[in-house]
Amino acid sequence: MKELKRSRAVRVLAVVAAVATCATGTAQAAIYWGNYGSNGSGTAIGRAPLTGAKPNQSFITGAAGPVGVVVNGTYIYWANTVDSSCSGTTIGRANLDGSAPNQRFLTGAVCAHGLAVNATFIYWANRGPGGTGTSLGRANLNGTHVNANFIKGATGPWGIAIDKHYIYWANRGTGTGSPCGGTIGRANLDGTHVNESFITTGVDGPTGIAVNAGHLYWSNGCGTTIGRANLNGTGANPAFIKGIPQAAGLAVNATWLYWAEFANPTAVGGGGSIGRAKLDGTDVSKRFIVGASSPTGIALDGR
């Protein structure tokens, strides 16, 4: 009888622990985005569960024209461009629950745009004023050992993504019309074997970039499409998803591809939607989440 009571007590404690975990929200996967705002006037990072329900457009406040956003199992990071003059030099960080924001977690960037993170380092694209930047930066996850010129030779880089072997980036350049060209670059994670023209077919002012186990995706910021290619750069399809006006940041998980709509046809810099589609390009939802302010960077946590 004592053993039965003890077993029941253990089960009760397990249930209580599970309920408490759900109540804190720590087990709920989420999507995050930077609300850049008109000419960089935005100050907030948005957040919603992966269902898109009840988005919080001011999950973190105090940012300065945030663009790139990335998360790992502990923190969320964002790039502060400051304004349309692109004078920002900082990357912010906060706990995943939005607490303890530090707008100057990392300094020494040059108008950082895209961000990427792994178990050891944080990487960023130094787009520079007017797209004049030519480098990718890297630092330890605690913000030390900042190397703003980890990879040199880029052309106005915007988006950045990493997998187990490579780092990829979008060379958007300084063009603003359509078409405005550009390339997708690639290098080893240690910064060697730099190829600034890894993908050139159908790349039109690339902004966001994302990678999974099968494909590389990029948004054509000077057009209205999202492109896709094999991981070795072959099979490029520049119009994998169509009808997306100036998509910016991209994020991908095992089922969905998400994008931030930086602008719409009638208000440049005035987009307000987060879109979503299945990985085969079907079930496109262009207004999966609405109410954002020129969203740019976008990220998913891995929970």
What is the structure about, briefly put?
By secondary structure, the chain is mainly beta. It has one helix spanning 2-24; strands at residues 30-35, 44-49, 56-61, 66-71, 75-80, 90-95, 102-107, 112-117, 121-126, 135-140, 147-152, 157-162, 166-171, 183-188, 195-199, 206-211, 215-220, 225-230, 237-242, 247-252, 256-261, 273-278, 285-290, 295-300.
Commentary on this structure:
The model is unreliable at 1-26 and 265-269 (pLDDT under 50). It is built from one helix and 24 strands. Strands 3-2-1-24 form a four-stranded antiparallel sheet, with no helix packed on it. It has a four-stranded antiparallel sheet with strand order 4-5-6-7, with no helix packed on it. A four-stranded antiparallel sheet has the order 8-9-10-11, with no helix packed on it. With 303 residues, it is mostly beta strands. The protein is globular. The protein is 8% helix and 47% strand. It has one helix spanning 2-24; strands at 30-35, 44-49, 56-61, 66-71, 75-80, 90-95, 102-107, 112-117, 121-126, 135-140, 147-152, 157-162, 166-171, 183-188, 195-199, 206-211, 215-220, 225-230, 237-242, 247-252, 256-261, 273-278, 285-290, 295-300. The chain has a single domain, classed as Neuraminidase, CATH 2.120.10.30.
